[in-house]
Design goal:
Blueprint: E1 2-4, E2 8-10, H1 21-34, H2 38-53, E3 57-62, E4 65-67, E5 72-76, H3 84-90, H4 92-116, H5 120-123, E6 138-139, H6 144-153, E7 158-164, H7 165-172, H8 180-188, E8 193-195, E9 204-206, E10 211-217, H9 222-225, H10 228-232, E11 239-242, H11 259-275, E12 280-281, E13 284-285, E14 288-292, H12 294-313, H13 318-341, E15 347-348, H14 350-375, H15 377-383, H16 386-394, E16 398-400, H17 401-410, H18 415-421, E17 428-432, E18 435-438
Parallel strand pairs: 3-14, 5-10, 5-11, 6-7, 7-10, 14-15
Antiparallel strand pairs: 1-2, 3-4, 8-9, 12-13, 16-18, 17-18
Helix pairs in contact: 1-2, 1-11, 2-13, 4-11, 12-13, 12-14, 13-14
Length: 440
């Protein structure tokens, strides 16, 4: 059991029994044959199904509170621990669909370009051809503008897959590219977003943005991936972490995959997309709504009361902020499990909520485990850039902002970056305006 101080415990064993049979069988099968760590497979499947559902289904929690099943997920493990393969495997159905859509789009774009070359008179002689839209579920390499364009065009939503998540996070640390973290916070909340672009008189408006994220990190770079600004604004708190106890590379074995299981998995995605098209009519999506069963609602009420008590006990800490987000996580995971069990369901059943709770127990434990690693003094100090290590070393135990700026200039750290560095609550205590103390 993972101890959350002396207040509660969370099970560190990944609850595979929370999954409907076909998905459970796949998780076990890939663990036996290809050494896929069970928490990685389960989390990859949840995120892939989250993506195919997108905005096609939403859960009505109560009036004015709806949840779509978007998830931000991160695998933590050493190099060689099969972080990437489970993602590629369980997103394969969506990648195959994207490949087909890309071929269709390429042909449509060619026909559209030929049409655009025609004169006004010639256009009147042929059927009008509208500019095609690329249907796409998965994003890998993209600019911020491209992300919003895809979210605007694909009403169902998209998923970001980042093999090495630290690269993805470093992009968001580039302040010259604007408040990217703020964008991802809003999208996680499915808040409508307006994007103003130079040269475009009409801003891009995305009423129902849907995005899931998945990728991997090595334990040694957790601190650099989640620096203080991401801890303080709630970005870290929105992630579900899969962090197995055993992250060592496993040897080759002679077990083969049961192909029929993967075929059945593929068919789930194809069938769901065919039966659940997402269209917009008069500004509203045709999302199907899941409603509570009475038993499920009462279970959630009881769980929420316990979670509220924990949030209040940890009040003022990052742990409190993590637990607060699990109100959303549990509902989203329950929605996903319900659709996995019965894709045509319009009722959120007790079983889905109970199993979502099992999964949330695991993810809460992992979030606390990751937080502990990030807040470990040695790990955190090691993650600092060399010039900031030197700045920290040269500072007196008590110092002024001016002192820090002068030392920072010696190591080519801009004044703005030095002031930003001083807001790191893990390293410094602000005594009063302009005066600081180094933490021991």
């Amino acid at each position: 059991m993972i101890m959350l101080d002396d207040k509660t415990t969370k099970d560190e064993t990944y609850p595979t029994d929370a999954f409907p049979k076909i998905f459970y069988d796949l998780i076990i099968e890939f663990n036996k044959s290809l050494n896929y760590p069970i928490p990685y497979s389960g989390t990859a499947i949840l995120t892939a199904v989250s993506t195919v559902i997108g905005t096609s289904v939403k859960m009505k929690v109560k009036n004015k509170w709806y949840e779509y099943p978007s998830l931000y997920c991160c695998f933590v493990g050493n190099a060689g621990t099969n972080k990437t393969h489970p993602i590629n495997t369980f997103f394969e159905p969506l990648k195959n669909i994207d490949a087909i859509n890309h071929e269709v789009y390429t042909q449509q774009r060619k026909e559209f370009n030929e049409y655009e070359k025609l004169s006004k008179q010639d256009k009147k002689k042929v059927p009008k051809i509208d500019e095609p839209i690329l249907k796409k579920h998965i994003l890998n390499n993209f600019s911020t503008e491209a992300l919003f364009k895809r979210l605007s065009e694909n009403k169902r939503g998209c998923a970001i897959i980042s093999d090495e998540m630290v690269t993805f996070f470093e992009t968001m640390n580039n302040y010259s590219k604007g408040d990217q973290i703020g964008n991802y916070l809003s999208i996680w909340n499915n808040q409508s977003t307006t994007v103003d672009r130079i040269g475009e008189p009409v801003p891009m408006f995305i009423k129902n943005p849907f995005l899931s994220i998945i990728g991997g990190l090595q334990p040694r770079i957790l601190s650099s991936a989640f620096p203080p600004q991401k801890m303080n604004n709630g970005f870290f708190q929105r992630f579900l972490f899969a962090y197995p106890e055993n992250t060592q590379k496993q040897p080759f074995n002679d077990n083969d995959i049961n192909e029929s299981l993967m075929n059945e998995y593929n068919n789930f995605f194809i069938s769901f997309i065919e039966k659940n098209n997402v269209v917009e009519h008069e500004g509203f999506l045709n999302s199907k709504v899941l409603y509570w069963s009475e038993e499920a609602k009462q279970f959630f009420i009881n769980w929420n009361l316990e979670n509220c008590n924990l949030v209040n006990e940890y009040s003022g800490s990052i742990k409190s902020e993590i637990l607060t987000k699990f109100d959303n996580h549990l509902l989203r995971i329950a929605l996903i499990l319900q659709i996995m069990d019965n894709s045509q369901s319009s009722i959120l059943e007790l079983k889905a909520v109970e199993n979502a709770k099992k999964l949330c127990d695991y993810y809460i434990g992992c979030s606390f485990k990751v937080l502990e690693a990030i807040q470990s003094p040695n790990t955190y100090l090691e993650s600092l850039p060399e010039n900031k290590k030197k700045l920290l070393n040269d500072l007196n135990d008590n110092f002024t902002t001016k002192d820090a700026i002068i030392i920072g200039e010696k190591y080519d750290i801009a004044e703005r970056r030095t002031k930003e560095f001083l807001t790191d609550s893990m390293l410094f205590t602000r005594l009063k305006h302009g005066y600081y103390e180094k933490k021991k």
